[in-house]
Every structure is written in structure tokens, then in C-alpha cells.
Design a protein that fits this description.
The complex is a heterodimer of chains A (about 160) and B (about 425).
Chain A: H1 9-18, H2 30-33, H3 50-63, H4 65-68, H5 83-89, H6 94-104, H7 115-128, H8 143-146
Helix pairs in contact in A: 3-7, 6-7
Chain B: H1 3-11, H2 28-34, E1 58-66, E2 75-78, E3 81-85, H3 93-109, E4 115-119, H4 123-134, E5 138-143, H5 168-191, E6 201-210, H6 214-219, H7 231-234, E7 258-259, E8 271-280, H8 282-295, E9 299-302, E10 318-321, H9 327-330, E11 337-346, E12 354-358, E13 361-366, E14 369-374, H10 395-410
Parallel strand pairs in B: 3-10, 4-5, 4-10, 5-9, 6-12
Antiparallel strand pairs in B: 1-11, 2-3, 6-8, 7-8, 11-14, 12-13, 13-14
The chains are: A mainly alpha (about 160), B alpha/beta (about 425).
The structure holds flavin-adenine dinucleotide.
Flavin-adenine dinucleotide binds near residues 322 and 325 of chain B.
InterPro entries (chain A): Cyt_c-like_dom, Cyt_c-like_dom_sf
Pfam family, one (chain A): Cytochrome_CBB3
Protein name (chain A): Cytochrome c
Chain lengths: ~160, ~425
């Protein structure tokens, strides 16, 4: 009979590396807390530059879109980098995301992205998911500085009158 | 149904600029593709279908929830809730269910809420609820009826992902991409349900039969009467040509048809093609999905909603709305157009596991019965049943469809061995 394939993937991996043991550690718990690595403290508002977004889009199109899709939708066998992705990474310090991309992506050539490209990709992904930049200051490349920012939680409230009727 | 078109379109894949589905035979590549003839000896011995009106066990009628702009899948804020819509999948709800659920649950997950309500337990609601459970959410289905009593199980039940799903103009080019994403995701998810006990999802060889060369049939001009106008001018679709065709976008993963050479063609017709067709055995599949839902801790509450304001007292703050055609009333979505369809069910014939189409009637031999549907018996094409909300069995129509299959098999000479 069928059994569920729970969304292990990178979430589980990052969890093993980063999570303190969760109380009530049912599989479902990792859903929204998997990457936060504990309590979400006060984080700085995230900033990235328009140049980074443009540069990130360029790298994305060449090195990532073939698997994650031009619209970041992913597919059956590749995680999306949009809706589910925001849920998985909300409130996670950005050094984790940059670190993951730097060490694991692109899947066929991990570890080949220079730090400025990784930062640009993070900026592009943030921008694509509706994050706004506090200033036009570029997103830093250094892990210690990135750790001060968290992946913004999505805006839970859509506009009162939703999109097309 | 438009399976003929569907595979015509799949043959057209790769032909640059082949936008008209009926144009494939005119192009050399497509002719070459069509030229592949089934390998001699691969047509199995076929047991005749016992299609007689006195064998009818059940006649089911259903209204396809058709929206000219395509299914409604946006997010809105109503009665203090975040409402993710997932309804209006026309004649493609079974086929696109998992892909549509994947998109809808993504919107729900992005709110970071842990608990979601799903309204409706047809194929769209149930797959949305399962997808939400798999994403780690707590799910309660609120519904008037469970799957076996919904419109969903009054369908034909096969892979028809772009059957009356939208009008090309009204849906626009963006929807074509969303459609492709849904169709690919669904197809891959269904593969996970193949080969299980009870065959919830299965394949049948589908024989498309014709007395005239299929080219001619496929080239038959779409009945268009300029005097009738179109959706833009009249507010209702007026011809088959307005309905969207997207199948060629996924022809790389959908098995193509093959021709049956004269000596191999067991049917008393001049022309036959064979295409592997994915089918849904409603009984086995429906039970499996409900079982999975309960096993994973999902809850079901029987409840009917009357107006969007009724959502206010739900404990969940996120709602995935999957009411199918009923959205016309309960969500007051007057853009939904009913497209009536009817299927007749004869006793199962496990000795004859195949499907066929002839003169506008389709037959699929399934584990829960032999399904016969007149999908285009009056030459109306995609306009068949459009605007008709008579959700009541029409025995004469059922007998006419069965008669087409019956007539075919009175002339059928089963080969020996
Ligand atoms: C003749 C025919 C053949 C078809 N063949 C195919 C095919 O071969 N392949 C394919 O992919 N598709 C096919 N379809 C299309 C497919 O059946 C539909 O797209 C699909 O069933 C829609 O499912 P749904 O879950 O949205 O709606 P439904 O099955 O109508 O489910 C709606 C659910 O919402 C609940 N509900 C509704 N209103 C309320 C309310 N006010 N309060 C509480 N609960 C409510 C209902 O009880 C039900 O549980 C066919 C359709 C027809 C008519």
C-alpha cells in the first residue's frame, strides 16, 4: 500500500545539521521550524541591491532554471523556490540559505559558486518571493554578517479583494 | 471528451507553429510520426464488449465546472480568512487534481499557518487535503458529501487534462504555463499509484476507430458560424474552436498513438489507432485516498455552507475552497458554465480490459464496470452539453451511445488465439 513520502529533502538535512532537538518532534513539526534553529530573535530588516537581483536572475537562468523552473515553481522531483520554499525557510538566518546554496547547488556542480554569486542568488530569490529591501545596500557575502538577517516570513494577509475574480 | 484531438495534438508536438490541432497530417514530420504502425503481433486477442441497453446498471449525470478563464486558483481575504480557491477544472478535474492541489497548498503553506480547512471532498478537495497533510499541515475537510456522492465520480475517469479546461482567448497565455505545470505534476504523481493492489490507477489500450480515414475526420472543419459570434461578443462559447488546446506542451511524456495495419486491425472498421490511456478506477482509488487521508490524521466534518460569511466561525484561518460547480451558488461565481455529460455503467468485464472510441461514443472497461459515454454523438464537438444544466439521466441518450458500441460488436469477428 501507499505510504507517505514526507518532505525530507533538504529540510531534513538542514535540520540534522542545525536544529536543536525539538520538543514534540513529530515529523510535521519540522514544517515551519526546521530551519530556524531555535527562537527567532530580533533580526535586522533585510537589504539587497537591485544590481544583485539582476545579477542573481542572470545566474539563475543559466544554472538553476533548468531544474527549479523559470518561475521557481520546481516540479515533482525538484523542490520549488516559491510558496513551499518560503514556508520552509521563513525566519531562518540567511547564512544557512546562502551556505546551503554555496555547498549544495547547482546540484551537478556544488561548491562552484563564488560568494558574490551566492549572495546575488539569495537576493534574487528573496525578491522573487515578494521581499522588499529596506535600503539599496547590497546583501553581504560573509556568513557572520548574513547571519544577522532572517528569511522574511511571508505576508499572511493577501489584499482584501483577491486577484482576478 | 476530445481524446482524438488530444492525440492528434501529441503527434503535432515539435512542429513549429502548428497551432491548429487539426493540421498535423499536412506536415511531413507529423506524417512520419503517424506512420509508426503497431508492431505485428502486439494486438492481443480481444473479447467483445457485451454492450446492450438491457445491461445498464446505472446512468450517471454530471456538470463539468467550466470557467472560460480556466480554474479559479487565486487567494483572497474573506470573513477574516485567507481563502485559496481551487475550483472550476472543467472536464479535466481528475487529470489535473494533484497539480492543482500542489499549487493551492503552496499558497496555503506560505501563510505559515499550521491548520487548514478544505471545503469539499470531490477529487479536487480530497487531493488538496492529502497534499496539505503531506506538507505537514493539520487538515480538516468540511463538506456536504464524501467522494462517492460527489459529481467527481460521475465522470468518465481517464487522462483528459485539457478537456474543456478553458477558452484560449479568455484564459490567456499565462494559463497555458500553469496548465503545463499542473499536468506534469499530476502525471508524475499518478505514476506513484500504478501497480497497486486493486489497480486504483491503471492503463488501457484505447482504440480509436473510424470508417473514414482519420485524416479526413481530423481535418473536418470545426463547425464555426460567424453569425453566432463568440464568447467575447455573446458571453457564452459558440464554437469548438474557442476551447483551449494544450496537450502538445506535454507530448514528451504522454504515450503517442500507433496505427493498426489492415491485417492487425481486429475491428470491423477501415481505420484504427491504439493509444495507451491512463484510467481512474473510482472505487479502488477513492477508497485508497480516503484511507490515506484518515491514516495520516485528517479529519472530516459533514457541513454545508450557504454564504462566504459562514466561514467566520471555522477555527482554521486558512481555507482551501474546492466546491466544484457548486461555487456558482455558494461563492456566487456566475462565470461557471455547466457542461453536461452522462455515463452509463454496465457490469464489469475483466476479460476485456481495453477502451475504444467510435462515432462519438467512448467505452472504457474498468474494474468497477464498463463505462459507455456519448461524448460527441451529434457532431457538436466541444460544444456538446455546453450550457446544459439538466443533471438528470437521459435514458434515450444512454441507449443511443450503447447502440453505437453494440452495433460495432455485432459486426466484430473475434480472431482465434
Ligand atoms: C461526464 C463527465 C466526464 C468527465 N470525465 C473526466 C475525465 O475523464 N477525466 C477528468 O480528468 N475529468 C473528467 N471530468 C471532469 C471532472 O469530473 C471534474 O472536473 C471534477 O469532478 C471536479 O471535481 P471537484 O472536486 O472540483 O468537484 P465535485 O466533485 O463537485 O466536488 C465538490 C465538493 O464540494 C462539496 N460542496 C459543494 N458545495 C458545498 C457547500 N455549499 N458546502 C459544503 N460542501 C460543498 C461537495 O459535497 C463535494 O464534496 C468529467 C466530467 C463529466 C461531467
Amino acid at each position: 500500500m501507499m505510504s507517505f513520502s514526507f518532505p525530507l529533502r533538504a529540510t531534513a538535512l538542514a535540520c540534522v545539521m542545525a536544529c536543536l532537538p525539538q520538543t514534540g518532534g513529530a515529523w510535521a513539526q519540522s514544517y515551519s521550524t526546521g530551519h530556524t534553529g531555535g527562537r527567532a530573535g530580533a533580526a535586522q530588516p533585510v537589504s539587497f541591491s537591485a544590481e544583485q537581483v539582476a545579477h542573481g536572475a542572470q545566474i539563475y537562468a543559466g544554472a538553476c532554471a533548468m531544474c527549479h523552473g523559470a518561475d521557481l515553481d520546481g516540479g515533482h522531483d525538484v523542490p520549488d523556490l516559491s510558496t513551499y520554499f518560503t514556508a520552509r525557510w521563513a525566519n531562518t538566518p540567511l547564512d544557512r540559505l546562502a551556505g546551503y546554496i554555496a555547498h549544495a547547488m547547482p546540484l551537478m556542480a556544488p561548491g562552484t559558486l563564488p560568494p558574490q554569486d551566492t549572495a546575488a542568488l539569495v537576493a534574487f530569490i528573496l525578491h522573487h518571493n515578494g521581499a522588499t529591501s529596506a535600503t539599496n545596500a547590497p546583501l553581504p557575502m560573509e556568513e557572520a554578517r548574513l547571519a544577522k538577517f532572517r528569511f522574511p516570513a511571508p505576508i499572511t494577509q493577501p489584499p482584501a479583494s483577491g486577484g482576478k475574480p | 471528451m476530445k481524446r482524438r484531438d488530444l492525440f492528434a495534438a501529441s503527434l503535432a508536438a515539435g512542429i513549429a507553429g502548428a497551432t491548429r490541432r487539426r493540421g498535423w497530417a499536412a506536415t511531413p514530420e507529423a506524417s512520419a510520426a503517424l506512420g509508426r504502425t503497431a508492431l505485428h503481433g502486439t494486438i492481443p486477442h480481444l473479447v467483445p464488449i457485451r454492450a446492450h441497453a438491457d445491461q445498464i446498471m446505472d446512468i450517471k449525470v454530471c456538470l463539468r465546472p467550466f470557467r472560460p478563464a480556466g480554474p479559479r486558483m487565486d487567494v483572497e481575504r474573506v470573513a477574516g480568512k485567507t481563502v485559496v480557491h481551487n475550483y472550476g477544472h472543467g472536464g479535466s478535474g481528475w487529470s489535473l487534481s494533484w497539480g492543482a492541489a500542489h499549487i493551492a497548498v503552496g499558497h496555503a503553506a506560505a501563510t505559515l499557518e499550521r491548520r487548514v480547512a478544505v471545503i469539499g471532498c470531490g477529487i479536487i478537495g480530497l487531493t488538496s487535503a492529502l497534499t496539505a497533510l503531506r506538507a505537514g499541515l493539520d487538515v480538516t475537510i468540511y463538506t456536504r458529501d464524501l467522494l462517492p456522492h460527489t459529481r467527481s465520480v460521475r465522470a468518465n475517469g481517464s487522462w483528459t487534462p485539457d478537456s474543456r479546461i478553458a477558452l484560449t482567448q479568455q484564459a490567456g497565455p499565462e494559463f497555458a504555463k500553469t496548465w503545463e505545470q499542473m499536468a506534469r505534476y499530476s502525471w508524475q504523481t499518478y505514476r506513484d499509484y500504478l501497480g497497486l493492489p486493486g489497480n486504483p490507477i491503471d492503463f488501457r489500450d484505447n482504440y480509436t476507430l473510424s470508417d473514414t480515414p482519420p485524416d479526413a475526420a481530423d481535418h473536418a472543419p470545426t463547425p464555426t458560424d460567424p453569425a453566432k459570434g463568440n464568447f467575447a461578443t455573446t458571453g457564452a462559447p459558440q464554437s469548438s474552436a474557442e476551447f483551449a488546446e494544450y496537450a502538445s506542451r506535454i507530448s514528451d511524456i504522454i504515450p503517442a498513438p500507433e496505427l493498426l495495419a489492415g491485417a492487425d486491425n481486429p475491428f470491423p472498421v477501415g481505420y484504427a489507432r491504439r493509444t495507451p490511456l491512463m484510467i481512474y478506477n473510482f472505487g479502488a482509488y477513492g477508497h485508497l485516498l480516503l484511507e490515506e487521508f484518515h491514516q495520516a490524521g485528517g479529519r472530516i466534518v459533514i457541513r454545508e455552507f450557504h454564504s462566504p460569511a459562514d466561514l467566520a466561525d471555522l477555527p482554521e484561518r486558512v481555507v482551501i475552497n474546492c466546491p466544484g460547480y457548486a461555487a456558482r451558488d455558494w461563492w456566487n461565481d456566475k462565470s461557471l458554465i455547466p457542461i453536461r455529460g452522462q455515463t452509463s455503467w454496465l457490469p464489469p468485464q475483466p476479460d476485456a480490459p481495453y477502451a475504444l472510441e467510435y462515432k462519438g461514443a467512448a467505452m472504457i472497461s474498468k474494474s468497477d464496470g464498463v463505462m459507455i459515454q456519448g461524448y460527441d454523438m451529434y457532431g457538436l464537438g466541444e460544444m456538446d452539453g455546453v450550457g446544459n444544466s439538466f443533471e438528470h439521466p437521459d435514458r434515450a441518450e444512454a441507449e443511443k451511445a450503447i447502440g453505437i458500441i453494440e452495433d460495432l460488436f455485432t459486426r466484430f469477428q473475434p480472431r482465434n488465439g
